Amino acid sequence: MKKKNVYDKIKEEEEKIKEENKVKKSPDIKAMFSQRVLAYIIDFAILWLITFVITMFVPVNDTATKLYEEQNRVIEGYVEGTVSMEEYVNQIVDLGYDISKQTVIVSIVTIVISLLYYVVYPCYNNGQTFGKKLMKIRIKKTNDTELSMNDLLIRSMINNSILVNIITVALVLFLSKDLFLSTSSLLSSIQYLVLIISLIMIAFTKNAQGLHDKIAKTEVVVADTVKEDVLCTSEN
After folding, report:
1. Tell me: the pLDDT tens digits for 94-145?
2. Which candidate, 168, 70, 155, places its Cα nearest to that of 110?
3. pLDDT tens digits, 200-232
4. Gyration radius from the chain CA atoms
5. DSSP secondary-structure letter at 30?
6. What does the DSSP 8-state code read for residue 127?
7. How many CB atoms lie under 10 A from the CB of residue 216?
8. Are 151 and 141 in contact (CB under 8 A)?
9. What is the C-alpha to C-alpha distance for residues 44 and 46, in angstroms, rounded to an integer?
10. Alpha-carbon distances of 140 from 37, 54, 93, 226, rounded to whole Å
């Protein structure tokens, strides 16, 4: 094996010094609680509008149309005082089940739109939805590796009710009315509990990670911030 000459040794030393004195980025700035809440509300409103417009073009059968009309009559009757509170609740619950049964395609389209908005779009947009872009925050991995579609899928399944919606669609197809209503009510309660726990974790924990962030190993940070570089030096 050829011995290293003086020049090679000098180059090695220079490379070692460069490695020891390499420039490191300062830690990311955590997004504020208010920024995250506002981004969530904006995204919810935008998604609702997009879903409303698109599902208008999804055909529904005559049965579903009649159920919607009946639902409107019940609501009008309650407002006018001709329908009691108990009758209103019972009829709305029953009609809600029947409508869900007849509009499974609409529910599936809604789930697909949610996946495109919360998973696909931010995956190709620096971890940002429209709401996060407006609030100048973004999603990133805690270990600074590349954010993947699987990471965003896990977050959205938990945080944006996508998993609950998928299960609900499956349940309405196979369960009886009473079993479906009790099961879907339980799922909704669990989803609300998860959201509350996540809000508390974001507001009061050091890393400001919600339950969905912890599971997906992500965090939400301020985007497009100019940060000073910190020189990492070794001290004796």
Report:
1. 888 888 888 899 999 999 999 999 999 999 999 999 999 999 999 999 998 9
2. 168
3. 999 999 889 999 999 999 999 998 654 444 333
4. 26
5. B
6. T
7. 25
8. yes
9. 6
10. 17, 30, 41, 17
Global pTM reads 0.78
The span from the CA of 119 to the CA of 107, in Å, is: 18
Cβ pair 21, 232 in contact under 8 A: yes
Q: Which residues pair with 30 in a beta bridge?
A: 221
Rounded Cα distance, 28 and 127, in Å: 14
**Do 181 and 95 meet the contact criterion of CB atoms below 8 Å apart?**
no
User: How far is it, in rounded angstroms, from Cα 198 to Cα 175?
Assistant: 30
Pairing of the two strands 23-25 and 137-141: unpaired
Spatial contact of 68 and 99, defined as CB atoms under 8 Å apart: yes
Q: To which residue do tokens 């508390």 refer?
A: 200
Evaluate whether 181 touches 93 at the Cβ level (below 8 Å). yes
213 by DSSP, 3-state: which? helix
Question: Residues 46, 130: contact at Cβ < 8 Å?
Answer: yes
CA gap 123, 153 in Å, rounded: 10
As a whole number of angstroms, the distance between CA 115 and CA 121 comes to: 9
Which residues lie below 8 Å from residue 199, measured CB to CB, with a gap of 6+? 37, 210
Query: What type of residue is 13?
Result: E
Instruction: Return the structure tokens found at 46.
Output: 């935008």
Residues 6+ apart with CB under 8 A from 111: 162, 165, 166, 169
C-alpha distances in Å from residue 150, one per residue of 13, 140, 141, 154, 181: 42, 13, 12, 6, 31
